[in-house]
Amino acid sequence: MLDRLDEAERPLDLVDEVHVFGSYARGALEPGDLDVAVVHRTDTEFTEDVVSAMMSGRDPMAGMKRALKGNRRGVQFQFNQNDNLPEGSELRLLWKRGDTRAVAAGRLQAMKVNPAAGRAPRDAMINQFDGLDRWIPLPVRVRLVELLDAGGIEIRRIELADAAPTSSVAVAALARRWKADSPLRRSAAAAVHYAEESGMASKAVWVQGQPLGPRRDQYGAGALWINLGWYDFDQLVYRLRQGAQCLEVIRPTRTQPLHALHLTVHDAAALPQL
């Protein structure tokens, strides 16, 4: 990774800082994944690539991840989330823009082995996230666990059937937005089908920020927000406080199983004030 940063090929020319945290940074002899926090800038080209990836259901940061780690596994990245990492993450600077390769290598060598350091506990993990956490950003996990521990929400994990909606209105709306082979369309269709079968679609349904029907004023009490890949997650508490419920499809994909989290209000008084 240091060699790649030193070469600064696109898009690594946008990276300003790289930090290491977790069990590796603490010197554990058998660390789990290598946790890396990256601070980067954006430009027009990068933003266009991110938007294009999101529209087609791909990981918007896949290019940056690949540029940093190549094909190596076992590396978990957080991008521009340093202020949202769990308390006690203990970020250790590995590289910053302007460093020579030798300076960065010196920081790496300074991360000494500590036989007393065990593997760090999995941050913000609950049973509902098990096996899916690599597709749930750490700040998202932290936020959901905070809301759950406060008694504000309930979280139910669902495996969605690969099926189309029964409503012709829903089918037409999804076809207008996405191509037939889009992972977003497949994921949205499965989520809407589930909502229909479970009775959750009796009122207004919103998919990726857009209503399925013509009404745009029915977004509160009784509404269902279907979000794909954590779209608009910063609006979660507002929507829940308005009386809506959310179905978060964790990883839109063309062929792999589709998992979702159904988020509902348990105690509105325990939700944070906006």
Brief account:
Helix content is 30%, strand content 20%. With 274 residues, the chain is α/β, with parallel strands linked by helices.
Describe this structure in words.
There is one protein chain. This protein has 274 residues and is of the alpha/beta class. It folds into two domains: 2-109, Beta Polymerase, domain 2 (2-Layer Sandwich), CATH 3.30.460; 127-270, no CATH class. It has nine helices and ten strands. The strands form two sheets. A six-stranded mixed beta sheet has the order 5-10-9-8-6-7. Helix 7 runs antiparallel to helix 8 (183-198). The radius of gyration is 21 Å and the shape is globular. The mean pLDDT is 90.
Which helices and strands, and how do they pair?
Elements: H1 2-7, E1 15-21, H2 23-26, E2 34-40, H3 44-55, H4 62-69, E3 75-79, E4 92-96, H5 101-109, H6 138-149, E5 153-160, H7 168-177, H8 183-198, E6 205-207, E7 210-211, E8 224-228, H9 236-241, E9 245-249, E10 258-265
Parallel strand pairs: 2-3, 6-8, 8-9
Antiparallel strand pairs: 1-2, 1-4, 5-10, 6-7, 9-10
